[in-house]
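Instructor's aside before we start: the two examples that follow are unrelated to each other. I chose them only because their records fit on one page, so don't look for a connection. First example below.
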Amino acid sequence: MQIQTDGEILMKLKKIIVALPFLTLLSGPAAMAAFSIPGLTNDPNPTDSTAGNGLADLIPGNTNIPVSPPQNHPVPVTPNNPVVDKPVPTDIWWGTPPQDNNNTGVLPVIPLSDEEAATLLHMREEEKLARDVYLTLFDAWDAAVFGNISNSEQKHMDTMLSKVEMYDLVDPVTDDTVGAFETEDFAQLYDQLTEKGMESLEAALMVGGLIEELDILDLQQAIEESDHPDVIQAYENLMRGSRNHLRQFASQIESLGLIYEAQMMTQEEVDEIINSPMERGGRGH
């Protein structure tokens, strides 16, 4: 039997350590509604953290259907899952990425499920809702926070559009005019939220906070429903941005001598966000 020296054993251990994978864990809060807008339900004590209360009920896509967590491998290519030849980032692929067997320089893209596609299109319009409301409230109150965050929401829209195009979906934003929406529910929400925000600067800032809470909750659900790492990463970046936006709106409200109160999330969840530092990295803006 060959006896290994201490140096040889140490070298093998170093190789094993270098080969260990790096895993990232994600957790997120649940939702509850508590903001008064005409026509919406207010339940300050929901029994189900995923119950569709208030504003979220008017948004399509909030089905609250339990889904399995993302698997550590791509969806297998079968007759029911044809591939589309488009570039796909390989640095964020779980498991072994698809191979370019034809040496074309292009890797196959695994199509989204119907549910994933519907959620992506929903988030594209929801980011437009945020942008349009903030642009309107900026014109009304000339508060810099609305102008700054509306610019970020435009970047969020662009991020969602890049995914819509990557997966060959039909963009629901056919008219980029402020207040114009393909989905009637979003058009109604725009009217309701801007009307509320016109009442006072305080009300406008609370509308901003409500939109960001809604965005966080919908992005959490979108992440749970997706099996595509690149889409999940995009949602995570947007959610980081929404947490930062919530911090900014809460700070503006506190500058008026008031305390920001949770509207859709629990107060504990909101406090955890607004009492923590601004987040950097990715494209959260």
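Example two begins here.
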Amino acid sequence: MSIQDSGNTRDSPAVYDTAEFADNPETRCPVVLILDISASMDGPPIKTVNQALAKFRDNIQEDTTTSLRADVAVIAFNDEARLVQDFTNGTAFEPPVLTADGRTNYSKAINLALDLIEARKQSYSEGGVAHYRSLAYFLTDGNPIDARADLANAAMRLAEVEKNRSVAFFSFIIQNFELLFDATDVSKLTGMRIDDVNSFIELNDHGDSSTIDLQGIANFTGTSYDKLVELGRTPKDYLDQLVTSQRPPVILTNLEQLAGSIEWLSRSIAAVSRSQPGEGIRLPSPEYQNF
């Protein structure tokens, strides 16, 4: 596990005790941060995330209304998805300290987040507490290892919650132009067996991404090298298929924009918390894009 002091992490939602709502019956703004902790996030990116989470805490706690209404959870994901901070009122939120290793699985993280939100909303209903539309912040810098069927299922779930206005899902990509090649696509184009394609693929030292010898495959099969290159996909290509066109993924070109996007989330929570459930809300402008 790549979270310090992570003994309380889980890979499934809990059953919530509604007694907490007796002390604080304020309308809740449920927020889930879904954060990539794969090996490629190691170094400055994960350090920036940890620093931004600390500022996120400070921002939501500096305003009494926001701190009482914010309900924050954190999911960290690599090969697996783990709930590293269950829903916690803003007044008590303390961010986990994240470290990075492993590969990247989008669908496990998205499914856990949606299951978590569903369970939390059920607790609101049972506790007689109103709530706003849930906010989800998804951050990644890498290509997913998910099976295509798993990604397709996650996309259907996201489309459904967006259609029902149950969850507003915001996705962010730390700029990464690395291309990922699917062995199945290469096999279909070249006529090679999957095992033969895999013999041209080599994982890096972290095991979170791979390089493929396209020239070797071109020489071996007589397939055009340029045609093979066209098969490559980036994280944005995958997220474009996962999320709705209403809320396309945002590319973060530097670490200042990364920190700014998490600060934007805290300001968005404040804006929601000052509104009435069901009314239209204009979220803060994404000033971080100018950094």
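Strands lie at 29-36, 70-77, 81-89, 134-140, 167-174, 201-203, 210-212, 250-252.
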